[in-house]
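Q: I'm writing a short explainer about Pectinesterase for a general audience and would like to include a description of its predicted shape. Could you first generate the structure from this sequence?
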Amino acid sequence: MQNSFNLPLKKKFYNKNKGIKIPGVLPALSARIYGDKSAFYDCAFLGVQDTLWDAQGRHHFSRCYIEGAVDFIFGAGQSFYELCSINVTIGGFITAQAREYPNDTNGFVFSRCTISGVKGVQALLGRAFRPYSTVIFRESFLSEVVDPRGWDAWHSVGHETNLTYAEVGCKGPGANTSKRVQWEKKLSAEQLQKFSKSSFIDQDAWRNLVGKLKPPQKATKPTKTAKRNKKQKSIE
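A: Of course. Here's the predicted structure. Afterward I'll give you a sentence or two in plain language.
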């Protein structure tokens, strides 16, 4: 099943805890996404901690706005974020990807996105919520909000080689990788191809069907015949 969502930015997924300052932050989801083959266009997800639970399934996020502070894009979704604006409000972690096993196919790819934030705040690109956590930033703009270390092994300290964290062709003051953790991956062209939009989430071309989905039809006024049939059934 294919699903598509297109909401003007003035219509947003709100998090009731927006504005809480650390150490008073509490998790409160703006959205939880389990459906496979789901697409989100021009949507906004606002929160502080655990804003967007990208739980499972193949997803395409395009031109979306995502705001938060701690693990605010997390889960085991197999998702491609394209031309999205990601805003950090409090120092923390942007992603907490949850790839559990080496043969799993899930992960997060951020392509041509913009990472920005509140002045003076810094956040890591991600931390490992599960042993094979996978996050790729490619051709994105990283502002000074990005912590120079880049990543945190979290639960995988001592097993960092199992993690796939990489940056490819990124620009901006936060894209300087000279102080990144030593275990950040350097992907070959062949490896990077596996994280292209078509290879990573769209091998069966389901996104071509998304644009053909028709919106729900408005309910029509029952005809006299329909009313008569309904009345007859109720008598029986």
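A: For your explainer, you could say: The helical segments are 189-193, 197-201, 207-210, 224-235.
Q: Perfect, that's easy to follow.
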